[in-house]
Amino acid sequence: MKATQTFILTLKEAPADAEIVSHQLMTRAGMIRKIGAGIYNYMPIGLRVIRKVEAIIREEMNQAGAMEMLMPFVQPGELWEESGRLRKMGPELLRIKDRHDRDFVLQPTSEEVVTDVARNEIKSYKQLPINLYQIQSKFRDERRPRFGVMRGREFIMKDAYSFDQDEAGMRASYEKMFTAYHRIFKRLGLNYRAVDADNGAIGGSGSQEFHVIALTGEDAIVYCPNSEYASNLEAAAACSVQPLTLGKEELQKFSTPGLTKCADVAKLIDVALTQTVKTIAIAVDQFDESNQLLPGSAKMVAVLLRGDHELNEVKLKKLPGLHDFRMANEAEILATFGASPGSIGPLNLTANVEVIADLTVADMADWICGANENGFHLRGVNWERDLPRAKAYDLRNVVVGDPSPDGKGTLEICRGIEVGHVFMLGTKYSEALKANFLDEHGKAKPLVMGCYGIGVTRLLGAAIEQCHDARGIIWPASIAPFAVVICPVSYDKSDLVKKTADDLYTAFLQAGIEVILDDRGERPGAMFADWELIGIPVRVVVGERSLKEGFVEVQGRVEVEAQQVTLDQALMAVQKKLTI
Amino acid sequence: MKATQTFILTLKEAPADAEIVSHQLMTRAGMIRKIGAGIYNYMPIGLRVIRKVEAIIREEMNQAGAMEMLMPFVQPGELWEESGRLRKMGPELLRIKDRHDRDFVLQPTSEEVVTDVARNEIKSYKQLPINLYQIQSKFRDERRPRFGVMRGREFIMKDAYSFDQDEAGMRASYEKMFTAYHRIFKRLGLNYRAVDADNGAIGGSGSQEFHVIALTGEDAIVYCPNSEYASNLEAAAACSVQPLTLGKEELQKFSTPGLTKCADVAKLIDVALTQTVKTIAIAVDQFDESNQLLPGSAKMVAVLLRGDHELNEVKLKKLPGLHDFRMANEAEILATFGASPGSIGPLNLTANVEVIADLTVADMADWICGANENGFHLRGVNWERDLPRAKAYDLRNVVVGDPSPDGKGTLEICRGIEVGHVFMLGTKYSEALKANFLDEHGKAKPLVMGCYGIGVTRLLGAAIEQCHDARGIIWPASIAPFAVVICPVSYDKSDLVKKTADDLYTAFLQAGIEVILDDRGERPGAMFADWELIGIPVRVVVGERSLKEGFVEVQGRVEVEAQQVTLDQALMAVQKKLTI
């Protein structure tokens, strides 16, 4: 393609609302243009990258036996009523009415529709397994859309749904997708990591996320450098890191006027923060038989964590009865503990307060906590002697240096951007929508489902967050809008330059290389800056002076110096750079 | 691909609501599944055809210099406010509110968004011409969606928009698109016709439609068998077909008790229907300065047409002052003409009624019309002698046998399905949205636009309406879901059949033929019926008996008999059938 035949829309400045580098660079490179909050036009250069990402995904999905279909963007509310999501989902599900005042939604995903397809079309176990996918625009009415394509409202997503006759089948389908995802992200040329994720109901290894590694990533990824272990922070298992010791100190109350943080209390008496325990008061509201809130009757729970640890709410929610917990308010805390937050502790509580401890706290001795009296803390606290042993669970976020759950080393944490998710759904939707099949004994059973998403437009942003420099985007060759740009200097003035550039262009095209020829007649500086911003992997500069010496210049996007090659060698030099 | 790897969803019966053959066959062939009124899932076989149609369109659009981009499905209401369409368009424009109660619309087309792109990105005449297109889902909230993909609510459309500096440029861009459309429809392998259409404001040759010819088409297409002339009925020019004669009869009133139709009156006195004139009373409401309707003050117009002719409202609306005409009501007619509809005529009217005549009526003599007295008509009516000559215009639909406007013969009428439209928009949107560019003198001017649509999903329906038989769809090879199907008889039982079928499958794939192997183990009758219904152009039957004689059977979808060919010849025989 020639540059005059496409829409090169590079900008010197990024828009004021572009907070992150991918948003800035996608706008400056002319890939996207904002048309409303979280709603973008994908301009020709941007669409080329989208299509390349889609093509790789499509090939690998087909290769893995999935079948592509297309579900509507506007979906009937009845189906979402059946699954319960029409009522349960928050306002990010955009509900609309048609001219006859019927309910519709704009699809954020398509579990309901695909389950409807399955219940209509899948009759027998003989048809299974089946995996249906689509690559389609989605809509989520984010409260505060931002970060360009990273948190847009309308975006492109590949969503796939597998149907199996039992859990073993589902796990096999899941494995296939997991493998396909690895192939996809490898082909995309990105540094990525598959990490264990939490999936609520099914638990265990039933859900994994694929993250593009980037310093600017919004998610913390926990991994073991010596093994395959990786997890998102919510799901990473923590164990006790407190060596079991016997208590030696006496229980002692001491004055801590105005000090409400463990760090301050530890500093006051010059002990390590790891010797302190913080008490977090949570509440679980109670309801009567007709589901009305019973005011003032919330069940109170004291959660104990070591002073330097952080509560992992996802883990806490999984404990029986705590799924709908909330933080207790000041009045509740005062009434229950007789002190304000920051001075509370687990000793001498009434029976109606449950105490639960993180595993690490359960192994501590001679610890420090609030005295349930404002301005006072206790030290030398020991289990059994001073208070009953609390039930202990894994309730905290892991931290760097924690032992890896697989026993193969200690954990590190890096940042990632979630771009894919594979998930064992089980029978949640098939039971709600009565999507049954007949098994080999002729018995009706609910289909066992998995779902698998990849954020196509988000991937563009993630790739850029990972691969860029001060001059612009650095595309992996597999998804670059063009593989090579030919930059002729004085294309509009020198016949020799024009002829050489045109010939090279033709030769590259014939060799199957996606090349763009900059025939705009721009000055070299502006021309080079444009293509570095857009991020084309290889640049070939054709200038009169070099030509007279028999050379053109070939330079990779991240290379500091250009390589002088003869015209005969140009094609091979370019091919070599593209296959590195 | 193998049949067990895709979703073959053939049905014996069509759904009850499928009124037309394409809807029936697309459903029975498993191409689409309805999920709501006018909203469909495109199943794997259907999506394959969509992708092929899209690929042909995309190649030809790119070849013609258009640039692909992607505009959002959900579009900000502000832009539609600027163009005025947010208020003016009917309820087929689905207006929605986001969580912040802001206005959005689901795009039925994208004039507003693309004009917004243009005003932001096009600064100078040097950037022109530019043509931007997208292939995207669209939404029109049809009051009564039906006919499957022919009148759906969510559908896929290719919409392109050209930007030029002047009308000459626009016409050149329009010509390019017109040529590209011919290439597209030829490559699609369909019998089609480009016809002149009405485009309101710009007139003349400023708008053409592309119709797929089909007996079941909903539009009448007027054409001249001896020339290139073709038009839709609204836009086809009619001339006078009444020979100029001198009046011989006297004006005479005669009794026509209860007769209100020209045909009945003509029969009563035994004259040709072509001797009668019907008078149609129309009204144009008047408004005061603050745009309030002035009741009872509608301007009345009597429109004269020959008794056997039909009013063309599109032509009538183009006359000065008549754009917003409506049919007069009975009370208005009685007050103005002193008689009821069916007995009114153009004689002896008060000055405040304008009389206009179709060209044919203007050339008539000794004609018959209502007497403005219930139960009476006049005969022997002649212009000038009995009433002043009325202004005459082309106001009627053409009929079969009318002279072609190009003078090359007489007109025929056939039925067509509109699948494409090219349209000279001019500056309607660029002026409304202030999309200006600087011309070579540095002067700001509005961009001159054209717009060009192709209904992608509608094309599937139109192709099927044109090409089907009692057994199912007959796809043109260019857009068939697969070019060839291999049907092995007893694939699951005969090793010889299985090996031969597998080998042929591999050979076809290697030759670049899109082949599907039916490995389902179905019985021959059911297997053949499925692929005839789905409409695969060529079938290769591999059976043990023929194989032992050294043959396989190759048969085109519309051929009555199969051809026996040796295994060596099979590939060539198939290729030959596909290139016919």
Summary keywords:
Rossmann fold, 16 helices, nine-stranded mixed β-sheet, 31 strands, BirA Bifunctional Protein, domain 2, alpha+beta, 580 residues, 3 domains, homodimer, YbaK protein
Secondary-structure blueprint:
The structure is a homodimer of 580-residue chains.
Chain A: H1 21-28, E1 32-36, E2 39-42, H2 44-63, E3 67-68, E4 74-76, H3 77-83, H4 85-88, E5 95-97, E6 103-106, H5 111-121, E7 130-139, E8 154-164, H6 167-187, E9 192-196, E10 207-213, E11 219-223, E12 230-232, E13 252-255, H7 262-269, E14 277-284, E15 299-306, H8 313-317, E16 326-327, H9 330-337, E17 353-358, H10 359-362, E18 367-370, E19 376-381, E20 391-393, E21 412-426, H11 428-432, E22 436-438, E23 444-446, E24 448-455, H12 456-466, E25 468-469, E26 472-473, E27 484-488, H13 495-510, E28 515-517, H14 524-534, E29 538-542, H15 544-548, E30 551-556, E31 563-566, H16 567-579
Parallel strand pairs in A: 3-7, 15-17, 17-20, 27-28, 27-29
Antiparallel strand pairs in A: 1-2, 4-6, 5-6, 7-8, 8-24, 9-10, 10-21, 11-12, 11-21, 13-19, 14-15, 14-16, 18-19, 21-24, 22-23, 25-26, 29-30, 30-31
Helix pairs in contact in A: 1-12, 2-6, 2-12
